[in-house]
Amino acid sequence: MKEFEIIQRYLAFDSGNRKDVITGIGDDCALLRVPRGQRLAVSMDTLIGGVHFLADSPARDIAHKAVAVNLSDLSAAGAEPAWLTLSLSMPEFNEKWLQDFHIGLKNIVEFFGVQIVGGDTCKGPMSITIQAHGFVPENVFHRRSGAKAGDLICVTGDIGDAALGLKVAQKELELETLHAESLLRKYFTPNPRIAAGIALRGKASAVIDISDGLLADVNHISQQSGVGALIRWEKVPLSPAARQVTNEKMLQQSVLTGGDDYELCFTIDEDDFESTFHALETVGTACIPIGRLTGKPGVRVLHNKQELELESLGYQHF
After folding, report:
1. pLDDT at residue 28, as a whole number
2. Among 75, 77, 102, 108, which residue's Cα sits nearest to residue 12?
3. Matching fold, domains 3-137 and 152-304
4. Is the pLDDT confidence value at 317 over 60?
5. Which of 132, 147, 79, 109 is nearest to 10 (CA)?
6. Domain boundaries, the chain
7. Of 173, 257, 194, 267, nearest to 227 (Cα)?
8. What is the pLDDT averaged over residues 190-215?
9. Comparing C-alpha atoms, which of 126, 287, 107 is closest to residue 189?
10. Could you tell me if 216 and 313 are in contact, meaning their C-beta atoms sit under 8 angstroms apart?
11. How does pLDDT run across 52-100, given as a tens digit for each residue?
C-alpha cells in the first residue's frame, strides 16, 4: 500500500472535524484558525519502539499513549487541545497492526475532541512523533518558573503505577491479577489531565506533567524557579495496587523516579489550597500536597524524618 493510501485509510478521520480547521489533511500544509483572545500552545514528543514502549505492545495502546503524552504537555500549560500532526515510521506495511493503531488513535482523538490535520509516513525503525496544538487564554499560561519558596507541592493522583506496570509487563513484578491489571492499564494507557490543567488556571504558580519521574520533574520546577524542594515520602499518594509491592526499594524507585504517570505536579500558595482543592474536585481530580518548596537548593526526600539517599532523580536519554 502506498504512503498516501495509508494516511487516508488509517490516519485521517471523517468524523469530528473542527470548525477552526480551514484545510486539514490533503494539502502540503494545514490552514488553521486561532480564536481571538487565545494563544497557541505547541508541544511535540517522539515515542520509539523498544525505548518508550515494548516491542510487543498492542498497537491500540501505542496509539493511545502517543497522543496522551502530547496532550499531557498541553494540560501542564493549562491549554485546551485542538489539533495534532503525526509522523509514523514503521519497518514494513502491516495491515493488522495499522488497523489496530487506527482504532486506538480514533478513540482518543474523538474522546478529547482533537483533529489530526497533517503528518507523514515513512519506512524505517518503529517510531511515532506527534505535535500537539492547543489554545490558552492570554496571561494564564502555566510555566515552570513561577514558583516561590513556601509554596506547596501538589499532585493530581497516585504516583508510581506506570513504572510498576512496566515491571509487571517485563515479568519483574508479580501481583494478584486485579492489581497487576490496574498497573498495566496505567502504563499502557495513561490519561492526560486536561480538565485539571484548565482548572488550575490562575491558581498554580508552576505546573509540570510527571513524565520523567516525580523528583526529576519537581527538580525542573525548582531549578527554573530558583528554589529548592522537600518531598515527604509518606505524603506521596499510592494506589491500592502499589501498596501491594513488598520490595521497598523497587517501590520507592518506581514512585520517585519511575515516570510515565502523566499526573500533574503543581505548586500553589498555601493560602490558595482550599480554593484549588475545590476547583480540582469539580473536575473529578485530586489535589494532594506532598511537600513544600524551600530556599535550600536541590530536591530532598524525607522518610521517617530521615533524608533518603537518591541515586538519580529520574529518567534521562543521554
Report:
1. 81
2. 102
3. no
4. no
5. 109
6. 3-137, 152-304
7. 267
8. 96
9. 107
10. yes
11. 778 788 999 999 999 999 999 999 999 999 999 999 998 888 889 899 9
- Between 27 and 316, whose confidence is greater? 27
Task: Tell me the residue type at 24.
Answer: G
Please list the alpha-helical segments (H only) found in 113-247.
161-169, 177-188, 194-199, 214-225
Domain 3-137 has CATH 3.30.1330.10: yes
Q: Which of 115, 34, 127, 102 is nearest to 71 (CA)?
A: 115
Going by the DSSP 8-state scheme, the letter that residue 240 receives in this structure is T
* Residue at 125: amino acid letter: P
Looking at residue 36, its amino acid is R
Alpha helices in the chain (DSSP H): 3-6, 59-76, 95-112, 161-169, 177-188, 194-199, 214-225, 248-257, 273-281
Query: Is 80:20 a contact under the CB 8 Å cutoff?
Result: no
pLDDT at 139: 83
- What residues are paired with 89 via a beta bridge? 122, 127
* pTM for the structure as a whole: 0.91
* DSSP labels, 63-109: HHHHHHHHHHHHHHTTPEEEEEEEEEEESS--HHHHHHHHHHHHHHH
- The neighbour count for residue 249, using CB atoms within 10 Å, is 7
Q: Record the cell numbers describing residue 137, joined without a space.
A: 487564554
- The residues near 118 (Cβ < 8 Å, ≥ 6 apart) are 24, 25, 29, 30, 85, 86
The three-state secondary structure class of 261 is coil
What CA–CA distance (Å, rounded) separates 25 from 119? 8
CATH 3.90.650.10 fits 152-304, yes or no: yes
pLDDT digits (tens, 9 = 90+) for 94-133: 889 899 999 999 999 999 999 999 888 888 998 999 999 9
